Amino acid sequence: MKFGGIEVARILGIQLRLDWSWFVVLLLLTWTFATFDFPLRAPGLEPSAYWLLGFSAALLLFVSVLIHELAHAVAARRRGIPVERITLFIFGGMAHLEDEPRTWRIEFWMAIVGPVTSLLLGFLFLWAGTLPAGGLDLQAEEPQEVLAQLGPLPTLLLWLGPVNIILAVFNLVPGFPLDGGRIARELALLVVAADDRKLLSPHAVRADRPVQRGGSGSGGLRLLLPREVDVGVDGGIAARQLREPAERAAQGVEADRAGGDAGVRALGHDEAAPGDLAG
Known about the structure:
Elements: E1 6-11, E2 14-18, H1 20-41, H2 47-78, E3 83-89, E4 92-97, H3 104-129, H4 143-148, H5 152-171, H6 179-191, H7 201-214, H8 235-259, H9 262-265, E5 277-278
Parallel strand pairs: 2-3
Antiparallel strand pairs: 1-2, 3-4, 4-5
C-alpha cells in the first residue's frame, strides 16, 4: 500500500509520518466520542467537556498505536534490523523495516512485543482509572450508575484500558501481516524445526486469505464505536490494505529465491515492504 502524508517528528531517530487518512479518522472518532460515547459514559457534563474528552480519546488511541509500533521498532533495532519510519493511517499503524528478519526467533520476538505492549498499556490504564473507586458506590445495580460517578479523567482511562486490550487481541489474529500472522508462521517454523523463514511465506499468505475475506463485512474501526453509530466503514478496504503487503511478501520471497534479495529491495519507497509490521 502507498502512504502519503507528512513527517511530524522523529522519535528515537525514527521518522513518524501521518498519512492523510489519519486526519480523517481523527475527526471522525472525535465527533463520535463527543456526541455518542462519552455522553453515555459520563452524563451531565458541558458540551465542551465532551468535545475535549472525544479529542483526547481519539488522540490517545493513536498514541497507544504509536507506542505499539515503537515497541516493534525498538525490538527490531536491538536485533540489528534498521527501522526507517512509522506511519499512522486510518486503520492503525505500520513500522517500516529496511530488512527482513532472517530467523524465526528474531521475527517471533519482534512480532509478539507489540501485542504485549498493548496489553500492558490496557491494564495500566484500567488500574489508573480505578484509583478513585474508593469513593464510589460499587453496590449500584447498574454499572452505568458507577461510571456516572467518575470524573472525566477516570472515564477516559477506563475507556482506553479495554480499547488497548482489544487492539492487542485483534493483532493476535493469525492474518499476515498482522502480528498474529507472523507469530503463527514462526511457531510453525519451530514445529517443523526449520530456521529458514522463507519456507512458509507464500503458504502463510495463502492460509491467511480466508481471514482477510472474513473482514469484508465489517470495518475494524467499528470495534471502537458504540452500537448506536454506524459510520459505514468498508471492511473490504481494510482487508485489501492487509492483503496487499502480504501478497508483496510472497512475491518478494519468490524473487529472492530466483535472484537473491533484488526482488525485495526493488519495492517502491512508499509501499509496504515484506518486513513491514502492521499494528
